[in-house]
Specification:
By secondary structure, this protein is of the alpha/beta class. Helix 6 runs parallel beside helix 8 and helix 7 crosses helix 8. Strands 7-6-5-8-1-9-10-2-11 form a nine-stranded mixed β-sheet, with helices on both faces. A four-stranded antiparallel β-sheet has the order 12-15-16-17, with helices on one face. It is built from twelve helices and 18 strands. A hairpin with a 2-residue loop joins strand 15 and strand 16.
Length: 468
């Protein structure tokens, strides 16, 4: 198929506004490439550029200096719903994936019956690679998919020209779909990066979208021995002290560095949007919530809680965007953003046609083009988790029970669906969510509660039922 006329049209649409502002110089012959690297369980404080004094992430730090650092970026509390929201630009009530599994924890301690949960992204959902491919992009995905592992749900059937899914939860000795013969010593982060580099080489002459979702730093904690030994000999900090975890994160950073070098070598970096993001908060912060979690390899402090919780430690994540000529280097964005925003953002960047499905996210391009200043035109960001996720080490305790949350301006409300309890926090004054203002500010609490209920109604969010 000859994409040349289409590419010319998409370039003019994509860059018209930026050219009128003088944001970019001479006209490029094609719209920008997009590289999207997704970390798994990478916490808000895990990167050196986000404050870690133990972990070493020199390539992500360099990406941060060259691009825009987001301090208020969010995901969902678990990986599968974030990936579904990212791919569709739609909230959990619309695609039906709100958890990894429907139920996790002993039944006798549940007061409600959770609704069904999709474990495969419905086929009637339009996803990012489909709209980008229609705009003339080559599309590749290598790594953790988690939105359906069989048949038509595989990424190779959903808009990706090239796709290899890693299907085993291990960093050594993993398997793939389609199957690739590998030595047991091959490290997963290195393997998917090798494939990503090959994809870039193959498609360097036309616009491409590369989606590289790592399995690191998800458990099991497995890293290369040289990295482990390096961090064993390094003085730990109060919050970060796990050498295996640090070595795993270093491998993700090395992957970022290898992709950056490839773009530089091929002279593609100046026309490539490079995004780094995480699918949920880090696995840590649980001891302060009153239950033990022996496997916690990190700590999200000063944020409260961790993965699987609606406190900021579970949903606030690192996010970096580099777009040479458009994003000001070393810029900072404090505007709240979330995973549904990537679909309309990439659609804008590519000049792609909007799908028929309703999009819940908003494009981040106004922030990217204004050094992170200004505010997005939306009222609030929402979360929905109508089920249970057990807390390790304490019988009958939950990391989360059926709950919802809303963030509007500086205020965040969490609603517990079992008994209607409300928690209201002023995140500007209380980032650690230590002071519940619901009793002091009942009008604000009820206002946000009504908005949350209306959002659930309009998105058809599945609700739990009381037992009996």
């Amino acid at each position: 198929m000859n994409h040349e006329p289409l590419l010319r049209r998409t370039f003019l649409k994509s860059f018209g506004a930026a050219l009128s502002l003088g944001a970019v110089g001479a006209a490029s012959p094609r719209p920008p490439n997009v590289v999207f690297i997704l970390g798994d369980d990478v916490g808000w404080t895990d990167l050196a550029c986000y404050g870690s004094g133990y972990h070493e992430t020199p390539n992500l730090d360099r990406l941060c200096r060259q691009g825009m650092k987001f301090t208020d970026a969010h995901a969902t509390a678990q990986c599968a719903p974030t990936r579904a929201c990212l791919m569709t630009g739609r909230d959990v009530g619309r695609h039906g994936i709100w958890a990894v599994e429907r139920l996790r924890g002993p039944e006798e301690f549940r007061k409600m019956v959770p609704p069904p949960n999709n474990t495969e992204l419905p086929l009637n959902e339009t996803i990012i690679p489909q709209v980008l491919r229609s705009a003339g992009y080559a599309t590749g995905m290598f790594g953790k998919w988690h939105l359906g592992e069989e048949g038509d749900y595989l990424p190779s059937r959903r808009g990706f020209d090239e796709a290899i899914v890693t299907v085993q939860g291990r960093h050594f000795g993993f398997d793939t779909k389609p199957h690739v013969d590998l030595s047991p010593e091959k490290y997963l982060a290195d393997f998917i990066t090798d494939r990503a580099l090959s994809f870039i080489d193959t498609h360097k002459s036309a616009p491409f979208f590369l989606y590289l979702p790592h399995f690191a730093v998800h458990i099991p904690l497995q890293a290369k021995e040289a990295g482990i030994e390096k961090f064993k000999n390094k003085l730990p900090t109060e919050r970060h002290r796990n050498p295996v975890y640090a070595a795993m994160l270093e491998s993700v950073d090395e992957s970022v560095g290898r992709i950056m070098k490839k773009l530089d070598d091929l002279k593609l970096a100046e026309n490539t949007v490079f995004i780094f993001y995480s699918d949920n908060g880090g696995v840590g912060g649980y001891l302060r919530e009153g239950f033990n979690y022996a496997g916690s390899p990190t700590d999200n402090y000063p944020l409260r809680g961790g993965k699987g919780m609606l406190y900021e430690g579970g949903i606030r994540v690192p996010m970096i965007v580099r777009w040479p000529g458009v994003v000001k280097p070393n810029s900072l964005c404090r505007e709240p953003v979330t995973c549904t925003d990537f679909f309309p953002t990439l659609m804008d960047i590519a000049g792609a046609k909007a799908p028929k499905n309703t999009l819940d996210g908003v494009s981040l391009t106004p922030l990217l083009r204004s050094s992170g200043q200004g505010a997005l035109k939306r009222e609030a960001i929402y979360w929905h988790y109508p089920s249970y996720l057990q807390a390790e080490g304490k019988k009958g305790a939950w990391r989360i029970e059926p709950s919802g949350a809303i963030r509007a301006g500086k205020y965040k409300l969490i609603e517990r669906l079992e008994d209607g309890r409300l928690e209201l926090y002023d995140l500007e004054a209380d980032l650690g969510e230590s002071q519940n203002l619901a009793a002091q500010m009942p009008e604000k609490a009820q206002e946000l509660r009504r908005k949350l209920a209306e959002w659930r109604r309009t998105t058809n969010a599945p609700m739990p039922l009381a037992k009996n």
